[in-house]
């Protein structure tokens, strides 16, 4: 150990900078607490080796050491040594710190303790790399940072910039919800997204495993749950343990959600005795809020849930268990005379003596909470469960707004924010980057602020199957990851997008298919290699309509609807449209705030892009007309041509320094407004930027 300390002293002896400075973000995402950059670099050579110094060997230390080894060998070395990592292992067991990469941690981290130490320090000098942490969890977080530093060389190796990083997370709960109930997500899909979570320092997988459209957990006590409710698509108990283990080795907790008492049609299809009426249900094939709920007045319902929990809770070591509890308006309870009588008999009524569904559901929640306590679990639920009488041990996840988050903390509950982080809505990364669980003006006392654990990005899967789900999560989820890890003062949106563009290709090297899958779908739709470029030109400026508008635009979706149309190949957020918007902004800067050369260069680039869009319609229309899956998008291509032509007219005047006649902008804007109509549940993402160009004075 004395030799190790000497090595670290030598490594730290050449300070990268004399004084700590605000972090220069470079390529890092999330932004660390502190990053001081030097001018030199460390060259990774073909004989690169690494070693780790751990505490006294125990079973816990061995498990932590194994997780660190896997992260280095499988996730980091392929980036440091592209094509050369492979076998044999590059780990060295020398008692002296002789390797190029030296890791050291003080103890195994306790993954099941929320808030256990994830801090780390990372030092890169021309002599080597030192990564130190109090726990192995910190090592895993530091390795994700190290991976981002690697810059490939022409020799097939890499270099690392000289840097001194000090880092720790802002919030202890940084999650991603993956909905495997509405569309089943095979184990391979879950695993590769866990790798993406590791890379962005997200540390909680919220696994949504039951809903109206599916029950995805194998139950040996109640096999019809997965046989009928899962419709042949479910996770075996062995697979669940495999995913939990895989996640744990990446420093990620797994929290299951079995939604109850609403969103329970799949339960009732399998076991009708749980229902609140005499109807017989099939697993739902349609989307939406069905308001079909379990009967909370029968003891047989509670004995069933208790038995199921006794079987399922051991599969998930995490101390938290999510019961959903959302979107049940109680209509089935109010329409059942027997349930209404029960509510009145037990005082579950309003001040006016009317049946109170909130009181009845609160009773249900308390019964289930007591079960979970017996199984040493802490209940988590959506913000609808918050109310009088709910024990403060329940964790509230707020999806309807900040009010639920703050009300929960004021009532003494730990709380999580998901409102603003619904990445399934196809909103921009910037819109998810802005919401903060604890902004400076949060109306909470210091003690109440401590109850805000963090937040979760949520990927509901009505419009995302296992093929395209990666493209609906990444890279935008990384913006949420940064909001939950980095300091609240890190809010530079353009810089976030710059780093997101650097980070997105890195995700592909982990196996994520957020770019590959849409590209493959485009090739299938195009039908021939020659037809791909014009179709791509159109697709890359399209976005799916926002929020849940796809439900209401003349196309009826069910669980069996293939997600194989152009709207599914289009990006959730168009990088091409956003970049074009930045270019428009640059030419609209007042003349005294820009250089003439840059202005002319940007005008030339704008003209080339607009001309491309204008000409593309003639190239892509034959493909759109020939394929029944593409024909509905023909109007969008025509609209893009028209909008580009209008913008080109205005650009010509800008180039000449002329002002358009008074009536011209108004007429052009009226035309642009008419072009906003979506088609095929997709819309032209570039139109707002074209409008700014046309209306420029």
**How many strand segments?**
18
Low-confidence parts: 1-22
Number of helices: 25
Rg from Cα: 28 Å
Secondary structure layout:
Layout: H1 2-12, E1 34-44, E2 50-53, H2 59-80, E3 101-107, E4 120-125, E5 128-135, H3 136-149, E6 151-152, E7 158-167, E8 173-179, H4 187-200, E9 204-211, E10 214-215, H5 224-227, H6 237-248, E11 253-258, H7 265-270, H8 299-312, E12 320-322, H9 331-334, H10 337-345, H11 357-374, E13 378-382, E14 395-398, H12 402-410, E15 415-417, H13 429-433, H14 446-449, E16 452-459, H15 469-473, H16 477-485, H17 493-509, H18 516-526, H19 532-539, E17 542-544, H20 566-569, H21 575-587, H22 596-626, H23 634-656, H24 663-674, E18 682-684, H25 687-694
Key descriptive features of the protein:
single chain; 697 residues; alpha/beta; nine-stranded mixed sheet; seven-stranded mixed sheet; 25 helices; 41% helix; globular; disordered N terminus
């Amino acid at each position: 150990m004395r030799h190790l300390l000497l090595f670290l002293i030598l490594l730290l002896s050449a300070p990268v900078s004399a004084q700590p400075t605000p972090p220069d973000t470079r390529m890092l995402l999330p932004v660390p607490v502190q990053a001081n950059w030097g001018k030199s670099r460390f060259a990774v050579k073909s004989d690169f080796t690494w070693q780790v110094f751990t505490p006294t060997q125990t079973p816990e230390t061995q498990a932590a050491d194994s997780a660190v080894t896997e992260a280095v060998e499988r996730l980091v070395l392929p980036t440091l040594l592209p094509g050369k990592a492979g076998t044999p292992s590059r780990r060295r067991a020398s008692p002296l710190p002789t390797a190029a990469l030296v890791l050291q941690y003080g103890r195994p981290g306790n993954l099941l303790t929320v808030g256990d130490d994830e801090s780390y320090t990372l030092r890169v000098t021309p002599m080597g790399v030192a990564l130190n942490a109090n726990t192995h969890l910190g090592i895993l977080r530091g390795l994700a940072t190290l991976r981002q530093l690697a810059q490939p060389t022409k020799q097939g190796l890499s270099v690392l910039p000289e840097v001194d990083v000090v880092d720790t997370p802002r919030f202890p709960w940084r999650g991603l919800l993956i909905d495997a109930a509405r569309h089943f997500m095979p184990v391979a899909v879950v695993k590769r997204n866990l790798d993406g979570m590791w890379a962005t320092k997200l540390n909680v997988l919220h696994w949504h495993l039951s809903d109206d459209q599916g029950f995805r957990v194998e139950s040996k006590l109640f096999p019809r749950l997965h046989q009928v409710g899962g419709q042949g698509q479910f996770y075996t108990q062995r697979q669940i343990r495999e995913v939990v283990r895989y996640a744990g080795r990446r420093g990620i907790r797994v929290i299951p959600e079995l939604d109850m008492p609403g969103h329970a049609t799949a339960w009732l299809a399998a076991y009708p005795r749980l229902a609140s009426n005499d109807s017989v249900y099939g697993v739902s094939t349609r989307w939406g809020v069905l308001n079909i709920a379990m009967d909370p007045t029968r003891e047989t319902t509670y004995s069933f849930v208790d038995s199921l929990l006794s079987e399922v809770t051991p599969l998930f070591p995490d101390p938290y268990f999510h019961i959903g509890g959302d979107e049940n308006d109680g209509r089935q309870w109010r329409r059942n005379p027997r349930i209404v009588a029960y509510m009145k008999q037990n005082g579950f009524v309003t001040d006016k003596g009317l049946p109170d569904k909130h009181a009845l559901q609160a009773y249900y929640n308390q019964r289930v909470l007591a079960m979970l306590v017996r199984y040493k679990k802490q209940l988590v639920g959506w913000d609808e469960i918050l109310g009088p009488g709910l024990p403060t041990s329940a964790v509230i996840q707020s999806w309807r707004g900040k009010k639920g988050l703050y009300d929960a903390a004021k009532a003494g509950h730990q709380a999580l924010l998901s409102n603003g982080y619904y990445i399934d809505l196809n909103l921009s990364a910037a819109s998810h980057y802005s919401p903060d669980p604890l902004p400076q003006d949060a109306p909470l006392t210091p003690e109440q602020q401590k109850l805000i654990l963090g937040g979760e990005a949520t990927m509901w899967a009505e419009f995302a199957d296992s093929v395209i789900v990666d493209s609906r999560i990444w890279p935008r989820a990384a913006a949420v990851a940064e909001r939950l890890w980095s300091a609240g003062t890190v809010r530079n949106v353009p810089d976030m997008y710059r780093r997101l563009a650097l980070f997105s290709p890195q995700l592909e090297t982990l196996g994520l298919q957020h770019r590959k899958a849409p590209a493959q779908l485009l090739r299938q739709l195009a039908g021939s290699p020659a037809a791909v470029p014009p179709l791509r030109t159109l697709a890359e400026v399209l976005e799916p309509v926002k929020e849940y508008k796809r439900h209401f635009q003349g196309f009826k979706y069910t669980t069996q609807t293939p997600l194989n149309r152009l709207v599914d190949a289009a990006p959730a957020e168009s990088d091409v449209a956003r970049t074009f918007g930045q270019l428009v902004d640059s030419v609209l800067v007042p003349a005294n705030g820009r250089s003439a050369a840059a202005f002319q260069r940007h005008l030339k680039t704008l003209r080339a892009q607009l001309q491309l869009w204008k000409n593309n319609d003639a190239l892509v229309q034959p493909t759109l007309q020939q394929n029944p899956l593409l024909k509905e998008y023909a109007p969008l291509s025509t609209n893009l041509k028209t909008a580009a032509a209008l913008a080109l007219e205005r650009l010509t005047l800008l180039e000449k320094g002329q002002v358009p006649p008074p009536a011209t902008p108004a007429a052009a804007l009226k035309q642009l407004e008419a072009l906003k109509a979506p088609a095929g549940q997709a819309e032209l993402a570039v139109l707002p930027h074209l409008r700014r160009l046309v209306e420029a004075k």
